[in-house]
Design goal:
About 20% of the residues lie in helices and about 45% in strands. The protein has 3 helices and 21 strands. Strand 18 and strand 19 form a beta hairpin. Helix 1 packs antiparallel against helix 3. The longest helix is centred in the last third of the chain and has 28 residues. About 25% of the residues are buried.
Amino acid sequence: MKRLAMVALLFFLGFFGIAHAENVYDMKYQGYLLKAQFPPPNVDETGPSGPITEPIPVAQISNDNLTFSGDAHVMLDNPYTFNPSTCCSVNLGNQGGFTVTFDQPVNSVGLSISALPYSYIDVIEDIGSTNSTVSAVYKNSEGAIVGQSSVTASWLGVLYDDNWQWNNTFNGHESAFGVSNVEGFSEITFMVDGGYGGFSGKGFSFSAPLSLGSTELYYSYLNPVPEPETYAMLLSGLGLLAFLAKRRKKIGFTAA
């Protein structure tokens, strides 16, 4: 009996662990799917042969569960190529942001943070950059503010190199910001202050706004509604437990 109870406990823990798993919305790939409908002009190694495709409003990356709004746009990460790895980021600019409304209350939301490349970045060198601040205001389903938070972090590594990242983590995600363990909210607005980066080139130097972007959104529902596949797994597990209990009872009756 103890063994059967232990199996049941492990099963239910596994079931609810799956039901409460973190969701990751890949805005980069969604942007690629949208921009693929209106591909940019032919490009070559020397640069674009014509104007780059118009930016896509952030609202167009909404789906059945998430509704995006705000002035942010989906932009190409690299204007010289067009493929899933170089397209796209949600461009927050130096002073920008966007709002996400969820189909049901969440208690954890995070956002990946990256710096968007400057044009002709290969001819300039980084001489340091200021910190960048990302903040959030979150509201419940009635529109009332239930909390707000922010974090300011520096940048690590070499400018626009593979190891250049914002020095902050969220739920194990590097270069990210978020809020968690909140008693349920249905809307969150992210805002950024990109700060300024200092650069030196061939005989000149200047300071310019540091524009930020994002490629992924992380969120966890407060009381998640399991997918049909999860319900199927639950029913299958309950059937297995019933079979084991019946079999155990039958064996005990026969032994008697």
